[in-house]
Amino acid sequence: MALPNFVTVLVVRLRMIRDGLAAFFYQVPVAIFTAKGSGLKAKAKAAGRDPLFQRRVLRFFRAFLPNLLLRYKFGSAYPNNGTALVTRHDDVIEVLDRNADFEVVYEPRMRAITGGENFFLGMQDTALYARDVSNMRLAMRRDDVAATVEPLARRLAQKLVAEKAGRIDVPPELSLPVPTAIVTDYFGVTGAPDNKFMDWATLMFEYLFTDIRAEPVLDSDALNAAADCRSVIDAAIAKRKASGETKDDVLGRCLVMQAAGLPGMDDLGIRNNLIGLVIGAIPTISKAAVQALDQLLDRPAALASAEQAARDGNDALFAAHVFEALRFNPLNPLIFRRAARDTKIAAGSFRARRIPKDTMVLALNLSAMFDPLKIEAPESFRTDRPWGDYMLWGYGLHGCFGAYINRAVLPAILKPLVIRPGLRRAAGEAGQIDMGRTPFPKHFVVEWA
Ligand code: HEM
C-alpha cells in the first residue's frame, strides 16, 4: 500500500505545482487582460468577481503561498493590523477550530444592529454564547425542518414558479420571497411593510459581513434598517403577548420559555436573537440559490442530470446537484477571524506561519473545497461527494445555525425551476446575475420551454 500511496501523493503534489504555475503565468493574466473595463485596476476588479478566476488565483496560493501574511490591513470596519490568507483545507479547519486563538470580530457591529446587546455570532466561546444558542435551538428545532420549513418553502416556490409564463426574475420573484415567508410564517415575525424584511436584512448583512471599508452611506442606511427592524420585532412580540395567542412557531416558543423564566428570554433577549436570525436567513438563502442555479446553467450535463433527478423524484440526488453547484461559487468564499494572540498556523509543517496578534485571518473555505490534497478530483462536478467535503456555510463553533434549513430549502426553491423543460438564461445581460452594486443578486432572469 505504501508505494501506491506515495506515488498518488507525489502525482497530486506535482499537479498542484503545474496548476499553480499555469494559473499564475497564463490563466490569471489572460483573464485580467480580456476582462471588461478600462485600465488594469478596473479589469482586475471585473475579473475578480468571476468565481472561476477566484478559484484559479487560489490554485497558485495553495501551491506556493498556502499561508500568506501581509501588512495590508483588512479594511477598517473591524480593527486589525494586517491580513493573513489561509488556503489549504487543513489550515482553514484549524483556524475555525481554534476559537480561543482566532476570535470572531463582529461584536461592535452586532451591538450597533441590536441597539446595545451582542448576538451569539458576535460572541466568543462563553457561557452567554452557550445560553443563547441553546435557547434558540429549543425555539428552532431540527425536526421543524421536515415538518414545517421544507413544506412551506416547497409549496411557495412551486406556486411562485407556476404563476409565471416561462420567465422569472429569480431574486425578487422567487429566492427572496421564500426565506421572507420563513421569517414571517415560521419565525412568527410579522408586521413589516411590503418587502421591507428583504431590504433591511440585506443591508444589515452587508454592514456586518461585507462592508469591510466601513462606507458611511451604507452604514447609516444599515443602522436605519436595523432600527426599523427592531421596531417591527418589538411590535410583533407585544402584539402576540397582548393577543394571548399561543402559536407554536419560533416566537411562540420563545414566549413559552420567557413564561418559564429562562434566562436570556426577556423581550429584549428575544428581539436580539430574532434580529440575528432574520439577518442570517434572508439574503443568504437567496444568494446561495441564485449562485447554485447560475453554476448549473453553466454546465448543461449537470443541469440535465439535475432535471432528471427532479423528474424521478430523487430528492437526495437533486439536492446533491445543488450543493455541488454551490461549491463552485459559495455565498462566502472566506470567513474572517482575528488572531487573539501571537500564534502559529500549521505548526510543525513546512508551511507553518507565525501570525501576530490582531491579524485578520481569512480562512478561505472556497479554496479548502478545491484543495486536491483533501478533495478528490476537486475540479470535477460530482454528485457523490461525502458531505464532509463541503464548507458551504461555515465550520466549527460558529457554523451556520440554519444549516439544516439550508439543506432543505435551497433544493426546494430550485426544484420547480430546474424541472421546467428547456430552462435557460434569458438573452443578454438579463440572463447574467446582476448585483446592482451590492454583494447580493438583484436580478437574474431565466426562461423555459
Ligand atoms: C444558504 C444559506 C446560508 C449560508 C450560505 C449561511 C452562511 C453562514 C456562515 C458562513 C456562517 C459562519 C459565520 C462565521 O463563522 O463567521 C453562518 C453562521 C450563522 N448563520 Fe448562516 N447561512 C445561511 C443561512 C442561514 C439561515 C437560514 C439562518 C437562520 C435560520 C442562519 C443563521 C446563522 C446564525 C445565527 C449563524 C451564527 C452561528 C453561531 O455563531 O453559532 N443562516 N452562516
Care to describe what's here?
The longest helix has 33 residues, at 2-34. The model has no long low-confidence stretch (mean pLDDT 96). The strands form three sheets. This protein has a five-stranded mixed sheet, covered by helices on one side. Helices cover 56% and strands 7% of the residues. It has helices at 2-34, 40-48, 51-64, 89-97, 107-114, 127-139, 142-162, 170-175, 177-187, 196-210, 216-243, 250-259, 267-297, 300-311, 315-327, 365-368, 403-418, and strands spanning 67-70, 83-86, 102-103, 167-169, 335-339, 343-345, 353-355, 360-363, 424-425, 445-447. Helix 1 packs across helix 2 (40-48). The protein is of the alpha+beta class. The protein contains 17 helices and ten strands. It folds into two domains: 1-64, no CATH class; 66-447, Orthogonal Bundle (Cytochrome p450), CATH 1.10.630. It is globular, with a radius of gyration of 22 Å. The structure holds protoporphyrin IX containing FE. Protoporphyrin IX containing FE binds next to helix 13 and helix 17. Protoporphyrin IX containing FE (HEM) binds at residues 104, 120-121, 133, 276-277, 280-281, 284-285, 288, 331-332, 335, 392-394, 398, 400-402, 405-406, 410.
Short description:
This protein is of the alpha+beta class.
What would the keywords be for this entry?
5-stranded mixed sheet, binds protoporphyrin IX containing FE, 2 domains, 449 residues, 17 helices
Widest sheet: strand order? Answer: 1-2-8-5-3
| H/I helix tally | 17
Measured on Cα atoms, how large is the radius of gyration?
22 Å
Give the beta-strand count: 10
CATH superfamily grouping of the largest domain: Cytochrome P450
Total of domains: 2
Class by helix and strand content? alpha+beta
Q: Summarize the helix and strand pattern as letters.
A: HHHEEHEHHHEHHHHHHHHEEEEHHEE
> Span between N and C termini?
53 Å
CATH topology of the largest domain: Cytochrome p450
